[in-house]
Structures are given as C-alpha cells and as structure tokens.
Amino acid sequence: MKYLLNRILSFLKTLQSKIAFYPSLFAILGFLLAFTMMYLEKRGVSKYLMDSFPSLVVNNGDTALTILSACITGLISMMVFSFSMVMVLLNQASTNYSPRLLPGLISDKRHQIILGTYLATILYCIFIAVSIQPSGEKYQVPGFAVLIGIIFTVICIWAFIYFIHNISQSIQINNILDGIYHTAKKRLNKLIESEKTEAEFPSTDNWIVYNTKKSGYFQNVSLNYLVDICEQHDTQLEIIPVKGIFVLEDTPVFRCRKELEESTVDQILSNFIFSRGELVEDNYVLAFKQITEIIVKAMSPGINDPGTALNGIDYLTELFGLRMQKNDESYIIRDNSAYLKLSAVSFDELLYNVMASIRTYCKHDIILVQKLGEMLIYLNNKPAQSDSYHNSVIEAAETLFNDAGRELINKTDRKVLEAYGEKFNLKLQIS
C-alpha cells in the first residue's frame, strides 16, 4: 500500500510542475459545472429566479446566445494573448538569463490557474450555449446558467488584469533573483533545522551497494518511507548520489548495512524520484547554479549587463552565508536513531564551482572583482559549522585576486587587489 501511495505522490508531484496541469484540471471542472447547471435548469432553477429576481435572469434565447458568443470570443482572444505572453516570458528568460530558469517559471501556479480559469469559462459557456432553445418558452432559456457564465467572464477579466501585472513583474530579473533566493533560503533553513540533533552513524565503506534500474536526474527521495523500511528491517542506508546529478542506469544509488531481498530493494528504489528537470524547492544547489549562470550570461560580451551581475553576487553572498550554517553531511533521525545518511555537495566544491564559472567572465572587471572580494570577506568573518569552510573561502580569494591581477594591468587596479589580499593575509602573485 505504501509503495502504491508513494508512486502516486511522486507522479502527482511531477505532474504539478507541468504548465498544462492546472488548465486541464480547471477545464474538466468547467465541463462538469456546465452539465450540473443543465441539470439544475431542468429542475426549474431559472423559472424560480425569473419569478423572484427577474432583472438577474436573461429570458430571451437570442440575447443569451449573443451574450455567450461575445464571452466566448473575448475569452479566446484573452487566452491566446495570455499564452503568448507566457511564451515571451519563457523565451526572454532562456535567452537573456538561463535556460535553467524555465522549470521554475513553467511551474508558477498563478499563471496556470489564470489560464485554467479562462479555459474552464470558455468550455462552460460553449456547452450552455448549445443547450439554449431560442424558439422555446421563457423558462426553457437557461437564464441562471447564462448569469453564471457572465459572472465567470467578469472574473476572467479581473484575472486578465492581474495576469498582465504579474507577468510584467515576473519578467524582471530582480524579481526572478528574489524568487530563486527565497525558495533556496526556505529549503536551506529547513535542512539546517533538521540538523540540530547530533547523530552517530557507522562507516559505510564495507556496506552492500545496490544499483538503480533507471536513469535520470536525481530529483528527490521519500525519506519517511525509507525510514519506515529501515525500522522494519532493522538496518541503515546511505544515499550515494547528490541531488541534481544525472544518474545512469545500473550505477550505485544506495548502500545498506545488511543484505536485502530483491522485493525490498525494489521497494527502496521506488522511493527515488528521477526526472528530466530540476526545481529549487527540491535542491537548493540549483539556486546557486541558476544565479551563477545569470551572472555569467550578464557578463558575456553579447549582453554585457554588469548591474545584473552585481545583484546576483549580492544574492549569492546571502545564500553562501546561510550554507555555512549547514554541515556537509546530513542524517535522517527518528527516535534518537540515525537511519539514513545523505550525500550532499560540500561547501568547498560548491564555492569552487561557483567562483570558477564567475572568474572566467568577471576577472577583467575591477568593480565585479571588488564585489566578489566583499562577498568573500563577509563569508570569512561569518561563523561556520567547520573551519574548513573558512579555508575554502581564503583559497577562493587567493585564486580570484591572482587571476584578476593577470588581467588588470592598471596600477590603481592592482593596488586595490593588493589591499584585498592584505585583508586575507595573502601575498598575491600579480607582479
């Protein structure tokens, strides 16, 4: 039962990130509502309203058809325009910033719900229009259903205004960076909170290794179900791959303290969620990648936008400061017992990969080098979970200033670099 539930939850989580999920769901609701209103019309709901509130009910078939036709035509135009705006947003984000931003923008529930509202109203109005008999008696016109269609159309107009406002905000790089930052911050805080309990975990060098039966990006894993399996079989597991990496078929994915039956192995593997895309909600490291790619693209010769690069470094500074409060190794604990060991990208590796990408395009710009220097000074003075974190920061600073020194030949710029080097007690090789 848990296996089936886990598969369903995994499928729904993947499905929710698709741009057509909520529009399709709302379309089904609009279809069902139309037939519900047809049933109520047969029960005489319009006749009752016509007697009680005649001003609210359309009692002429031609008028009702005209109103519904106008609503359908207008809503289709709005929906086409809205979809076009979404495509423009995705194209601009991919071209100017980073293709990695697309999964997060596509999964924006606000856009999906608005588009779904349009689609549901269009389908509702179409089926209500089909049910109208213009030549019949007054009560045969679904007046109440037409009134509901008019109300839904007004709601769609309000949603369209909100959509224009929201899309104009979403396309701005400051809001994109802010959204990435807050999502990653929320994820990091959750991980840091879960590490407050100390855990003892044995060495896994001699444990039995099990391989995956599928390939894809390792997106997430159902930790609660794995802990349940560990309790049931009195064992412990180590998750080998790091979230976000591409796992090839028949490569190691977990180690176990004892040998397991094939059915149990299949049950454990079912809790690993693979996909062809990534989301920051599941993997905070992706936020570092996205912001780094935005900085690199902003400093490329084709775009040359140092202001965006400076903003990106500010967000990286805060995220790195938060990452320094997290251990490189994570454990899942239940009832004071550690059952799972999770692999994670170390702080040293994360900082090196980010700085290596940025140095290529920023080492020739003294303003950006200064900004990166301020970031490294801030990190070096910030308390950390391990002293090795500060050693990584000093090493990154030495590499940055030496590379910049080879690019910058102006004496004033070199003095600035030497001043930053003194703050780290470094003797730079830039002469």
What would you say about this model in short?
This protein is an alpha+beta fold and 431 residues long. The protein has helices at residues 2-16, 21-42, 45-52, 61-97, 102-106, 109-130, 143-170, 173-194, 223-233, 262-269, 285-298, 306-323, 347-362, 366-380, 387-407, 411-423; strands at 208-211, 216-221, 237-239, 246-247, 252-256, 272-275, 330-334, 337-342. The protein has a domain at 18-171.
What does this structure look like?
InterPro entries: DUF2254_membrane. Keywords: Membrane, Transmembrane, Transmembrane helix. The chain crosses the membrane at residues 20-40, 64-90, 111-132, 144-164. This is DUF2254 domain-containing protein. The protein is α+β, with helices and mostly antiparallel strands. The protein has a domain at 18-171. It contains 16 helices and 8 strands. Strands 1-5-3-8-7 form a 5-stranded mixed beta sheet, covered by helices on one side. A 3-stranded antiparallel beta sheet has the order 4-2-6, with no helix packed on it. The model has no long low-confidence stretch (mean pLDDT 82).
Set out the fold topology:
Layout: H1 2-16, H2 21-42, H3 45-52, H4 61-97, H5 102-106, H6 109-130, H7 143-170, H8 173-194, E1 208-211, E2 216-221, H9 223-233, E3 237-239, E4 246-247, E5 252-256, H10 262-269, E6 272-275, H11 285-298, H12 306-323, E7 330-334, E8 337-342, H13 347-362, H14 366-380, H15 387-407, H16 411-423
Parallel strand pairs: 3-8
Antiparallel strand pairs: 1-5, 2-4, 2-6, 3-5, 7-8
Helix pairs in contact: 2-6, 4-6, 4-7, 6-7, 8-11, 8-12, 11-12, 11-13, 12-14, 13-15, 14-15, 14-16, 15-16
